[in-house]
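Researcher: Next sequence.
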Amino acid sequence: MGIEVTVEGLSKAFGPQTIWRDVTLTLPAGEVSVMLGPSGTGKTVFLKSLIGLLKPETGRVLVDGVDMVNDPDRKVFAMRKKFGLMFQDGAMFGSMNLYDNIAFPLREHTRKTEKEIRRIVLEQMDVVGLLGEERKLPGQISGGMRKRAGLARALVMDPEIILCDEPDSGLDPVRTAYISQLLIDVNARIDATMLIVTHNIEIASTVPDNIGMLFLRDLVAFGPREVLLTSEEPVVGQFLRGNRHGPIGMTEEKDAAKLEEEARAADTLGPVRPIHIPPQLRPSPGLPARAAEARHAAAVDAILPTLSHAAQHAIRENRAHLNQTGGLT
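Model: Next structure:
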């Protein structure tokens, strides 16, 4: 089972520029979470801060008793081995074939024999659908295959936490759908805690148990998937619908005068179209049900009466789907 990640009061700046401030959230053990946000809101910086690659100015990131921000480097380095990181571009070594790329963390950080390494590498290549492609170089394969190779490399150390930085970037909608299903399948297999950074609304609406959103240097929201997807926050609705009208501008947030002008013109735009909330993806046939489903459902039940009617309705609809497809009972 994955490890809970607790983020408390995290703030990060580069010189005078504040990236985000006082971010507090919990990634529940074994659950899949997504972090959304417009370009430039520091989502990748947030991932790197969780794993200790960047040091925020204030706050804590607690992982199994280790503070990834403030504890000594030796503790942080040891805990980092429990993380698997899927980089945005795959981060493959161009001169190495796929097998050696995926084997690299095992050779670098363990004392396993080459026989053991081969078993693990081929097993994970099979999981991501790359068995038989071991000798190919990164430059000889498609972007989608490089993403899957990057995921296989993230899995070889048997991680309890997996961080995915824009796994959909550069992919067409069909390959994005395959990656989405693969991430759900990986969670069903190993019950790892997962955080996915993405701009992709399809991934955000079908994959995670929880969704968060960063905007204006703050965490706008973090919680069950259906809560954010039914949110009436203007910035959330604008982002989910891909609308020009709202707080998000082309390069930065809009000022009060621009927002007031848009509000006056709102009547001419017609009614705001509702956001369709599709059912959450199920593991592929033959795989076990996700163990996180029952834990997530129990946590949601505890707060259900406090949620909006729209969120409650969406949660009940998703549970009905899970029941019909052999999931939650």
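Model: The longest helix spans residues 173-190. Residues 262-272 have pLDDT under 50 and may be disordered.
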